[in-house]
Amino acid sequence: MTTNFPDGRITLIKGRCISIPGDDIDTDRIIPARFLKCVSFTALGDQVFADDRLELAGNHPFDLKENQGASILVVNDNFGCGSSREHAPQALMRWGIRCIVGQSFAEIFFGNCLALGIPCGVLSKPEISLLQELIGRNPQNTWEVNIEKKYIKDDLNKIDLEFDKGPHNMLISGRWDATSQLISNKNELEETMRSIPYLNQFKSN
Amino acid sequence: MHQVTKLPGGSSQLFVGLHLIHEVTSPQAFAALEEKNIKVRCPERTVATVDHIVPTTSQQRPFEDPLAEEMLSTLEKNCKSHKIQLHGIGSGNQGVVHVMAPELGLTQPGMTVACGDSHTSTHGAFGAIAFGIGTSQVRDVLASQSLAMNKLKVRRIWVKNKLSHGVYAKDLILHVIRTLGVKGGVGYAYEFAGPAIEALSMEERMTICNMAIEGGARCGYINPDQTTFQYLKDKIHSPKGEEWYNAVKWWKTLASDSLARFDDEVKFDASKIAPTVTWGITPGQGISIEETIPTPESLEPSERPIAKEACKYMNLKPGNPIKGLNIDVCFIGSCTNGRLSDLQAAAKIAQGRQVATGIKAFVVPGSEKVAKAAEKLGLHNIFLQAGFEWREPGCSMCLAMNPDKLEGRQISASSSNRNFKGRQGSANGRTLLMSPAMVAAAAIKGEVTDVREMFSPSN
User: Fold this and answer.
1) DSSP-based three-state secondary structure for B231
2) Among all residues of chain A, which has the CA nearest to that of B109?
């Protein structure tokens, strides 16, 4: 488990990759609902993929010895679909994941990752397959995800990553923690509130 | 109108008109605010209830489960210290958040609605823009009554004709998701429109929009019309007097006009839809009651691996019919189908019949108001006499955060919204999604049944 969480500008993540193959991996699988019974996120790192791990009795990627300490998660299509629970990226982050590379991500999950400073980069299907194959061949290999320049590379291969423009800006500028920014636009908020009919007895302006 | 400003990242800061919270996704958000000494910006625009963790047998406090008790008492403490209204157990208003808020008239056309729960899309039934958010965003909304949001594309789902007898809103939305896929909606808002949609009641419209998220859409909505206004009239939080007329006047301006252009449009024919049941482990793996489990060859190559995984997990054989499949548990309830009309549809099937031997069947009203209305109509007695259990309101077995769970390999017929692996509380439990009437029919027969064969000539 790690406690050194993302902070400030997110530009470069270096580490080993861990692959979770399969499309449509939902948040109930990432963190089963019974673990949502908590008032803090701290214990979630141990519980990530709990039921899948139980089923595979020690052979799940998150249990394999060679994957311990990995920080880059590689996934397939529509990863993180289902519930809005932030517990899912929280559990991944607390296990040690700092970056996810996949074919596509469910939208709420993507937003939840962004709010934690975890970049979700996109590769095409063949590129993901290649990356998964390379990881399988050599799990000990170190990879570098350059968020700023949008690529993932090792000594031999360099693959371009796609990032949505807005989230990409937020990550590399260190402004992915939205709260303070949202609060700071105080006057604009008040002005907006003055123009919304249901806040003003529906009087026509 | 709700855009506060453009944010440097390229997204918009969007004002949130109604923020709904519950015990699961709010405690960490409040803790983060307190840590930074930030106040709740508009406590009067946040409304709380408790739903996910409440037991549905006895709701006596303290709850038997100390974790559940801790979650509710944390919510109570947070609401009290931040002056947020909490509709707690026994208040008469408590219920699944997406059932109780519309009942109180909190959800209105033209509003932006956010809640730390993916099924927030339900509220789009009123012509509101409603979406689920994560806990960081719950914190943002508490702190600023706004959040960062990207612009969505709009896909119109146009449904012509009318649903046939014995075919419900649930069948329609399962059919749409089956057709467009569980990620077909990514990047889109779904606008549901056309004669079949206009003919639906508000409760049916909520069922449709509730599951827009299961199709991958960020939200789903239906343009407000007379049905919407009729539903809202005289609700506790609905505008009153002259304000009502002004509100209706504004609401009428919200609908997409005939010149509206959509990023995409897909058309369906409601009259061709049959009762639909999911057989797999995603809500998109559905078939009509008349069909058989799809063979790999009949599917797109990209769908084959998950279909194979689903058959293995569900222990189903491609080519076999879904009709006649034995079930163990029947659950009627949830934010998808826990409203009065859902219970009425199920009661019609249960009336004068008996739950098959060995089947555990239970009905969980979506809210205290639904429970009260159902009891006034005597629905609880119909269910009890037929051998169903009649429970207290809550999320219950839709998800496994309370004592209602599947055990082992049990297979359930469920009126809820997700059939993911392990969703209903057993790591290898199995879920078949269907309409409440279909669940009732399955309970009576002990197997997946075509509800259309169970209507007497009078109903």
Assistant:
1) helix
2) A198
